[in-house]
Write a structure and sequence with these properties.
With 305 residues, the protein is an all-alpha fold. The chain has a single domain, classed as Na+/H+ antiporter like fold, CATH 1.20.1530.20. The protein contains 14 helices and no strands. Helix 1 packs across helix 10 and helix 3 packs parallel to helix 6. The protein is globular and about 55 Å long. The N and C termini lie close together (10 Å). One of its GO terms (cellular component) is plasma membrane. It is found in: Cell membrane. Belongs to the auxin efflux carrier (TC 2.A.69) family.
């Protein structure tokens, strides 16, 4: 696990360095937008399709999704209970709730699980995100962001869900899997080739997206509960819950690691769109990502995998 963290950290660091130096005049934000669009529209849907087409579905998928919903509930409930009694503005409250609730389940979770547990674990990350985190984010998460921020346009959660290409890839994979449709070798090779680019590009893009904005000391006083919830409390609850269920060590490790992922990078988009505190959220992503390089090996060890 330590080797995996070092490799992931190195790719993230390369993204950070690119953002600082902008080789050939290509700015970090421009490159990040291009890479994440490529991953989001083409590579990740291809990966979701091939993984869920071949993955065993059934009670395991329901278990992953159910525990993902539980993790989201723990994160949101804990953050709301804490911050409702604190003097934070509404834009800050919205940003803090998003940061404490939604983990970086795909953009960091998928690479970590694939390298740590093997290619079979990709299905855990995809199910955790696309069967739970993404639907909740684009429904309840959007409504929450609009409530605490300033919605400047009508909100249509269902329409937003329909515009998520990886979700379509996942749905197609599930239907083909359940229908018993064989996967042709040629198509399998093509989809796997496209999907193989997801891991390095995701980790590199995370580094491109990390930002240190505003007064770090002031923000840390507001952010430490988010860090505790996202990196310690939520995975602790999921670790306990998975221990109560009959499942293999690999599956348990994958679910716990997903719950222990840092704050979701894409939340910055919601904060910007609904005028929440972007600087505060960006700091949450930066700090939680850095600290997760320490906490992820701890949780992996706790699972005994």
């Amino acid at each position: 696990m330590i080797d995996v963290v070092i490799q992931a950290g190195a790719l993230i660091l390369l993204g950070v360095l690119w953002r600082v130096w902008s080789p050939s005049g290509l700015e970090g934000d421009t490159l990040r937008h291009s890479l994440t669009t490529l991953v989001y529209v083409l590579l990740l849907p291809a990966l979701a399709l091939v993984v869920l087409w071949k993955a065993p579905l059934g009670t395991e998928a329901l278990t992953v999704a159910g525990l993902a919903f539980a993790g989201l509930a723990v994160g949101f409930g804990s953050a709301w209970a804490w911050y409702r009694f604190r003097s934070v503005s509404r834009p800050q409250m919205g940003a803090l709730l998003l940061a404490a609730t939604f983990p970086n389940a795909t953009y960091m979770g998928l690479p970590v699980l694939e390298v740590t547990l093997g290619p079979w674990a990709r299905s855990i990350a995809i199910q955790y995100d696309l069967f739970a985190c993404t639907p909740v984010l684009l429904s309840a998460g959007v409504l929450m962001a609009a409530r605490y921020g300033d919605a400047v346009e009508p909100i249509h959660p269902l329409r937003m869900l329909m515009r998520v290409p990886p979700l379509w890839g996942a749905l197609a994979g599930v239907l083909l899997n359940l229908g018993g449709v064989p996967l042709p070798d040629l198509l399998d090779g093509l989809l796997e080739l496209l999907g193989s680019a997801v891991v390095p590009l995701m980790l590199f893009s995370i580094g491109l997206g990390l930002r240190w904005m505003g007064s770090g000391t002031r923000m840390l006083g507001q952010l430490w509960p988010v860090l505790v919830i996202q990196l310690l409390l939520t995975p602790a609850v999921i670790w306990w819950a998975t221990g109560m269920l009959a499942m293999g060590e690999g599956l348990r490790a994958g679910i716990v690691l997903e719950a222990a992922m840092p704050s979701m990078v894409l939340g910055i988009v919601l904060c910007d769109r609904y005028r929440l505190d972007v600087a505060l959220y960006a700091m949450a992503v930066t700090l939680s990502t850095a600290l997760s390089l320490i906490t992820l090996p701890f949780w992996f060890g706790m699972t005994g995998a």
